[in-house]
Amino acid sequence: MRDNAPTARLASGLVLALSCAACSSPAAPPSGVVAVTSASGALRVEVRTSPQPPVRGTNGAELTVTNVADGTPRDGLTVAVVPWMAAMNHGSSTIPTVTAAGGGRYEVADLDLFMPGHWVLRADFSGPVQDHAEPALDIP
Amino acid sequence: MSSMNAHGVSFFSRSGRYLGPIGAAAFAVLAACSSNGGAPDAAVTCAAATGGATPGPADTHCGSTVQPTLASSCHVQPDAAAPGDDGGGDDGGGDDGGATVDAGDIGTCGSAAYGATMYGSQGSDDDCKYDVTWTSMPICLNVPVYFSVTVKYRTDQSPVTGATVGPDVVLSCKYPIPNDPAPLYPSPETTPGTYKVGPVKFDRAGKWVVRFHINGDCVDLLPTSPHGHAAFWVTVQ
Questions:
Q1: Residue A13's CB: how many other CB atoms inside 10 A?
Q2: Domain for residue A6, yes or no?
Q3: Structural domains in chain A (count)
Q4: Between chains, do A4 and B13 touch, taking CB under 8 Å as contact?
């Protein structure tokens, strides 16, 4: 059995974050949420992490993908995420698992940001569209 | 955000594996068992060691190749590096980071950024800058362990002092070590060129990849960058 207390705190925090997200305009992501537009310009990708802010080590993340044109959620994508440190010319040894959760949400498990620094999440989208986005996270 | 991941563990419980009360307690127990801050302690912290270096062929990937390093390459800006120059060695520029498990099971998980994982407890880093040897406390399932990692320059076998050393540990490309406790970063240098790396808790049996990053805070854009990495198989039963 793993430590459940942090889990409860994280759950509460994330519920709050998600509630705030629902009230926010697409142009202004809630505090702590990273938002980028995909390479094609067609998709908006918001990233929330758990814990928030992300820590050195293993994190979870949720990508929320919407159509830039109308803000509707983009489901049905196959998503692959590779954590990468460009300046260090390497990524993490762990390949995260991505699971579709509906409503344009894709859950990323085992995001191992094992060292401090500037990490980019190389997110490749395939299926109905082929696209790419690179939201960034800084680990103190 | 409560679905289960591939391990059947909830998103939150996996992601919440940071240093919490349990981690602090585990760390305290570990500290109490340690005799000093130096090399891994001789005291057995688990009933019987069930893991260790995976036996196999000795590392020879560098042969006579020696890649010198320059401290000045540590902070070079990306536009100062030649296009496609990614730090030399066999780490293959232009790599996409890898997204599939390598068929040959060399522990790189499909990423050309890293060289093959090594057997035993000594070998050279991927780019042939350093010679790396390690020992450890007894390795047991679910008991945090420290590695004593000694790094020497291949140019003259002098100790690599003042380096930022840290571990990157994964099982089967999909399962990282837990955050409770999280390994120290950077690892303390106990004697010149020797670093106490950990704590690392192997919470599943299997053949883990333990990758030591050396000068991991250095930009790795030139072949002479002090940034290096060396990975070893560690079997835990």
A1: 15
A2: no
A3: 1
A4: yes
Q: What CATH number is associated with residue A127? A: 2.60.40.10
Residue B201, amino acid: K
Provide the residue-wise pLDDT of chain A in tens; the chain has 140 residues.
334 444 444 444 444 444 434 444 455 666 779 999 999 999 999 999 999 999 999 999 999 999 999 999 999 999 999 999 988 889 998 999 999 999 999 999 999 999 999 999 999 999 999 999 999 999 99
Residue of B nearest to A96 (CA): B174
Q: Collapse the DSSP code of A23 into the 3-class scheme (helix H, G, I; strand E, B; otherwise coil) and give the result.
A: helix
- Whether A123 is in a domain gets the answer yes
Pull the structure tokens for residue B188. Answer: 């303390």
CA pair distance B230, A82, nearest whole angstrom: 20
Convert the pLDDT of each residue in B164-202 to its tens digit: 999 999 999 999 999 888 999 999 999 999 999 999 999
How far is residue A73's CA from residue A104's CA, in Å, rounded to a whole number?
4
Q: Is residue A15 part of a domain?
A: no
Structural tokens at position A80:
């692959």
Q: B173, A95: Cβ pair inside 8 Å?
A: yes
The ipTM (two decimal places) reads: 0.74
Residues 6+ apart with CB under 8 A from B54: B119, B120, B207, B232, B233, B234, B235
Residues of the domain holding A101: 28-139
Contacts B91 to A, Cβ<8 Å: 89-90
Question: Does residue A13 belong to any structural domain of this protein?
Answer: no
pTM value > 0.80: no
| B214 close to A (CB below 8 A) | no
Cβ <8 Å between A6 and B23? no
Q: Contact, A85 vs A139, CB < 8 A?
A: no
- Among A1, A19, A63, A88, the strongest candidate for a mutation testing the B interface, having the largest count of B CBs within 10 A, is A88
Q: Which residue has the tokens 């040897």?
A: B133
Distance separating alpha carbons of residues A65 and A47, to the nearest angstrom: 9
Would you state the structure tokens that stand for residue B33, as one six-digit string?
A: 């068992």
| Assigned token pair, B70 | 């320059």
